[in-house]
Design brief:
This protein is mainly alpha-helical. Helices cover about 35% and strands about 5% of the residues. The chain contains four helices and two strands; from the N terminus they run αααββα. Strand 1 and strand 2 form a beta hairpin. Helix 1 crosses helix 3 and helix 2 crosses helix 3. The termini are far apart.
Length: about 120
Amino acid sequence: MTEYLTTGTNLPPYMIFPRFLLDSNLSETTKLLYMLLLDRARLSMKNDGWTDAQGHVFIHFTITDLAATLHKGEMTIKNSLASLEHTGLIVRRRQGPGHPNRIYPKIPSEPAVQTDKKLSGSHL
């Protein structure tokens, strides 16, 4: 059953979708993947042991687990990870045989874009 939102409604758990992605040329799957990686990075920011020597936050998320979470094929996830890496939104570092890669989610230094201006409400 669904309910109308009220000021006292407890929202279910949700992920944040960065507005700058609306103006990107990334596929919808790649955008969802980035959103998922950022969500996982928020947890890493709160817990000890998930930063490197430079203080950069990283996550571990296998391709198999990413594919299962997003209900996509592993090749689709690999292509999306490559797109994110190509655009500079993530960096992957190999940890050696038998160890998952470290994934470093990144954010643009200036994410303000046209969509931000449209959604900010300043044009009302």
